């Protein structure tokens, strides 16, 4: 038997095996491959840019935390304890850092791969399913968000902004946040068609960053604006991280966690559906 | 092939006269920069909704979140004693204006230049007409100036609405912000004209040059409140010079005369050096 | 219109154009033929007065391009190898804006743009963005754009590369009309059929030097035979068989994929080959072309 015949036979075999599995049309259990591709691409890319993503929150921390902090003195956190201004905004910037890392990959990079590099078309023409692609891509974005958060923590520690051991919880917190934004970001991106529409993501991100209780407690706003902000994911992210970092733990935090779990599941669901509709008609 | 070239009526409605008759070279040369600017502005107009949205959205967002939000904390804690006696919003306004001008120039002097040289090569198209490298530089500076003037104008209108500046200083502030913008922009243009492929260059500039410049140029708090060994960031940054000028103009922030003059000289130096380098490199690259 | 004497361009150590002489007369279509890297585009850039020569003499319309670039460019129409249209502007805006670069008035341009749209058969696409056009349409628009100032000399760098056959013929037709109107054409190409179709006179360039000069018919007469017989025996056998048939024709050229027999009567030579008991996989008798001239002059094919 020729080599080609052999290869064809085993491909048929694999296909038949998959045929009997649940969810076979969307998932082949090999999202690792998609992730691997990103790691390979990363090694030959301009890694300074990728790693530089976390310096922006650090600039904010230094400029706002210490510069403006001098003008402000201290503030009181959610539980009424006085904290330094830098310690107040640091967790918010950590959450932002995780968000930025995740969003950058899951929006602009995904958009580029979808429309210009035609990467998903290529991937889905193989035995990979849309859920493999989605998990692979989101996994990568999540990884990046996680690394950003870790880098940010490494800067905070020597500045004395990590007061308790509970703060370690902020790391899994950051992973959860990155996962949520990555999954949701990719879902939205998969529905967008032009670069122009992509700009609206930035348009949404900047105010969310500026107003989600990042730089001062929410109570300066009227009630309806507060309600609006509390519907936004970044607010939940910041509240969660701030509680971890300042050691104000309570069961109420579960609400924020659930918010992100919903985001993750919804994001995965819509991404898979959209990729199926786009490339597997 | 069925619809292959039909037998056509005389293609030229008018008589072919030849360029020796119809092109007035002297006129084309004199207004060359203007024609470059015209082309660029036409291009901008395609995006005028985004430009308008960003021009209006940015100041409103920053004024509410930083000016009002952080401002409330600062003012409540007696921070104004460190701000020369004015409230935080008044202190912040000239800085926001200058940084808006600089960012607007930065946008215009980054991707559009890459586009002209590399992506659609439109600079080469211009250069195959009586237009020179120098005209292209001048035209781009002029069109960026035009766009920035609109952006800064809108920003100022919003600041006036918030009561952050006085009407009688609006014009001089407008001019000083634009001056800081064009000084920075011309250097940015010179730098970009050396770049052959993007390769993340602009992302790096954004994160390692623009962002720290905005954060550490006495924008959000007085430069003097930074540790002395970091204050040099402000001294070299055109944003600080523009901001400090704006503060003197806006609320008479106390500053020594020679420092005010040195702001002008410093910004003028950036402008001249930037333009000189840009003229040279753009011409060189067109001829290569 | 154009006079070059010892024209040279070096980039550092590399000599792109190596002391060439030629003249282009008013109203003729002048071709530069050669493979990639022959120095055609560099020569074009020097004529277009954007790239400065590093040696020799060059005058265009009686002016020195190193000193009077803008004045010369005012009377040129340039169609670069790669379309450099403003992608975000509409088709008609591209023509208009380019006309403004020549300082042409709005009123004049308004009429001119309509005229050029018709010339390029783009009237219906006038409001499309340039980036939305097909390759052939973009090319036609670029050519139309080069005509906006009614140039004395129209320079076309590889005008039909990448176009389908029908689009090429439409373009050739357009260029003929311009010639009839007295426009001088300077064309580079690496397609010999294009050179044969369009050029009154041409130079063949290789490695920065001129290998030959003359009209297409002239060159073919001088450097090639009347007919060419192409035979293929399969790449492994060509060399071996070439020795057996080396007595045929005036000259033999062995290429990796085929053997070319230059002769007065290709059909007769083919019969000879068959008589020898050799059976080519394919055979073809054709009129000889500039490709053969080029092969003779340089030992290489044009399109490699």
Question: Any idea how many domains of chain A?
Answer: 1
What order do the helices and strands of chain A follow? HHHHEEHHHHHHHH
Q: Could you list the spans of chain B in which at least 5 consecutive residues all have pLDDT below 50?
A: 1-13
Instruction: List the chains of the largest interface with their residue counts.
Output: B-C, 45 and 47 residues
| Helix-residue proportion of chain A | over 70%
**Please, how many domains of chain B?**
1
- Alpha-carbon Rg of chain A, integer: 21 Å
What letter string, H or E per element, gives the SSE order of chain B?
Answer: HHHHHHHHHHHHH
| Helix-and-strand structural type of chain A | mainly alpha
Helix content of chain B: over 70%
Molecular shape of chain B: elongated
Tally of individual helices of chain B: 13
Measured distance between first and last alpha carbons of chain B: 42 Å
Shape of chain A: elongated
Q: Roughly how many Å is the radius of gyration of chain B?
A: 23 Å
Mean pLDDT of chain B, as a whole number?
A: 90
Arithmetic mean of pLDDT of chain A: 81
Description:
The complex is a heterotrimer of chains A (281), B (288) and C (304). Chain A has one domain. Chain A is 73% helix and 2% strand. Chain A has helices at residues 3-19, 31-43, 47-52, 55-72, 85-115, 119-124, 130-156, 170-191, 195-211, 223-230, 233-246, 253-279, and strands at residues 74-76, 82-84. The longest helix of chain A is centred in the middle third of the chain and has 31 residues, at 85-115. Chain A is elongated and about 70 Å long. Chain A starts with a helix and ends with a helix. Chain B has 288 residues and is an all-alpha fold. In chain B, helix 12 packs across helix 13 (257-287). The longest helix of chain B is centred in the last third of the chain and has 31 residues, at 257-287. With 304 residues, chain C is of the alpha/beta class. Chain C folds into 2 domains: 2-216, Rossmann fold, CATH 3.40.50.300; 225-288, Alpha-Beta Plaits. Chain C has helices at 40-47, 65-73, 91-101, 106-119, 135-145, 165-180, 192-198, 216-223, 238-244, 266-275, 290-298; strands at 2-11, 14-24, 29-33, 55-60, 76-79, 153-157, 184-189, 201-206, 209-214, 227-232, 251-254, 259-263, 282-287. In chain C, helix 8 crosses helix 11 (290-298). Chain C is globular, with a radius of gyration of 22 Å. The relative contact order of chain C is 0.14. Chains in contact: A-B, B-C. The interface between A and B is medium-sized, with 30 and 32 residues. Chain B: It is a multi-pass membrane protein. Chain B: One of its GO terms (cellular component) is ATP-binding cassette (ABC) transporter complex.
């Amino acid at each position: 038997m020729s080599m080609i015949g052999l290869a064809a036979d085993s491909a048929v075999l694999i296909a038949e095996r998959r045929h009997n599995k649940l969810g076979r049309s969307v998932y082949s259990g090999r999202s690792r491959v998609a992730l691997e591709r990103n790691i390979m691409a990363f090694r030959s890319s301009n890694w300074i840019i990728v790693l530089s993503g976390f310096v922006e929150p650090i600039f904010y921390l230094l400029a706002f935390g210490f510069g403006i902090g001098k003008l402000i003195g201290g503030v009181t956190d959610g539980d009424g304890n006085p904290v330094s201004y830098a310690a107040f905004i640091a967790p918010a910037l950590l959450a932002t850092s995780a968000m930025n890392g995740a969003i950058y990959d899951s929006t602009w990079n995904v958009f580029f791969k979808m429309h210009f590099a035609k990467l998903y078309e290529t991937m889905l023409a193989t035995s990979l399913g849309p859920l493999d692609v989605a998990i692979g891509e989101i996994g990568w974005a999540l990884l990046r968000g996680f690394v950003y958060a870790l880098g940010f923590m490494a800067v905070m520690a020597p500045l004395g902004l990590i007061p308790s051991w509970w703060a370690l919880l902020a790391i899994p917190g950051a992973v959860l946040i990155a996962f949520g934004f990555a999954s949701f970001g990719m879902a939205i991106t998969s529905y967008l068609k032009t670069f122009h529409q992509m700009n609206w993501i930035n348009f949404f991100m900047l105010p969310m960053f500026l107003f989600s209780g990042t730089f001062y407690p929410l109570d300066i706003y009227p009630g309806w604006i507060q309600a609006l902000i509390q519907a936004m994911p970044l607010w939940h992210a910041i509240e969660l991280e701030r509680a971890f970092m300042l050691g104000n733990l309570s069961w109420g935090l579960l609400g924020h966690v659930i918010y992100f779990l919903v985001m993750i599941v919804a994001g995965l669901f819509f991404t898979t559906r959209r990729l199926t509709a786009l490339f597997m008609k | 092939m069925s619809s292959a070239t039909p037998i056509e009526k005389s293609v030229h409605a008018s008589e072919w006269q030849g360029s020796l008759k119809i092109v007035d070279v002297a006129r084309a040369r004199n207004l060359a920069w203007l024609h470059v600017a015209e082309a660029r502005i036409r291009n901008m107009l395609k995006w005028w909704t985004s430009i308008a949205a960003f021009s209006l959205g940015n100041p409103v967002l920053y004024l509410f979140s930083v000016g009002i939000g952080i401002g409330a904390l600062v003012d409540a804690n007696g921070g104004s004693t460190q701000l020369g006696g004015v409230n935080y919003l008044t202190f912040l306004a000239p800085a926001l204006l200058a940084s808006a001008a600089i960012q607007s120039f930065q946008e215009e002097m980054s991707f559009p230049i890459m586009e002209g040289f590399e992506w659609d090569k439109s600079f080469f198209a211009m250069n195959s007409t009586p237009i020179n490298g120098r005209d292209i530089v001048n035209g781009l500076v002029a069109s960026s100036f035009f766009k920035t003037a609109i952006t800064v104008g809108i920003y100022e209108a919003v600041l006036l609405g918030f009561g952050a500046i006085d009407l009688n200083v609006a014009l001089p502030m407008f001019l000083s912000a634009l001056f800081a913008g064009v000084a920075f922009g011309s250097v940015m243009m010179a730098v970009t004209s050396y770049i052959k492929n993007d390769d993340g260059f602009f992302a790096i500039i954004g994160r390692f040059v623009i962002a720290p410049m905005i954060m550490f140029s006495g924008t959000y708090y007085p430069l003097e409140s930074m540790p002395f060994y970091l204050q040099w960031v402000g001294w070299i940054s055109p944003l600080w010079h523009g901001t400090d000028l704006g503060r003197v103009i806006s609320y008479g922030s106390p500053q020594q005369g020679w420092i005010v003059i040195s702001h002008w000289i410093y910004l003028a130096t950036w402008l001249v050096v930037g333009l000189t380098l840009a003229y040279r490199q753009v011409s060189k690259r067109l001829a290569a | 219109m154009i006079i070059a004497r010892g024209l040279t361009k070096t980039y550092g150590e590399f000599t792109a154009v190596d002391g060439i002489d030629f003249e282009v007369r008013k109203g003729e279509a002048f071709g530069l033929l050669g493979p990639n890297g022959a120095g055609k585009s560099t020569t074009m850039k020097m004529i277009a007065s954007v790239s400065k020569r590093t040696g020799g003499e060059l005058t265009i319309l009686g002016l020195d391009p190193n000193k009077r670039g803008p004045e010369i460019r005012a009377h040129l129409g340039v169609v670069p190898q790669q379309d450099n249209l403003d992608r975000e502007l509409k088709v008609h805006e591209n023509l208009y804006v380019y006309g403004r670069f020549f300082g042409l008035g709005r009123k004049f341009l308004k009429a001119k743009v309509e005229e050029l749209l018709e010339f390029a058969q783009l009237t219906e696409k006038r409001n499309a963005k340039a980036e939305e056009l097909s390759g052939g349409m973009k090319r036609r628009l670029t050519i139309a754009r080069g005509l906006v100032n009614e140039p004395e000399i129209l320079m076309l760098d590889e005008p039909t590369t990448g176009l389908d056959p029908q689009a090429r013929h439409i373009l050739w037709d357009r260029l003929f009309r311009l010639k009839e109107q007295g426009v001088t054409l300077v064309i580079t190409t690496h397609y010999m059929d294009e050179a044969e179709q369009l050029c009154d006179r041409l130079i063949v360039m290789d490695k920065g030097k001129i290998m030959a000069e003359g009209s297409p018919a002239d060159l073919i007469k001088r450097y090639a035979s009347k007919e060419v017989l192409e035979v293929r025996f399969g790449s492994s056998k060509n060399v071996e068989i070439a020795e057996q048939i080396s007595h045929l024709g005036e000259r033999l050229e062995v290429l990796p994929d085929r053997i070319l027999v230059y002769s007065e009567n290709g059909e007769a030579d083919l019969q000879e080959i068959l008589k020898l008991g050799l059976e080519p996989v394919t055979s073809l008798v054709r009129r000889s072309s500039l490709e053969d001239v080029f092969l003779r002059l340089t030992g290489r094919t044009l399109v490699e």
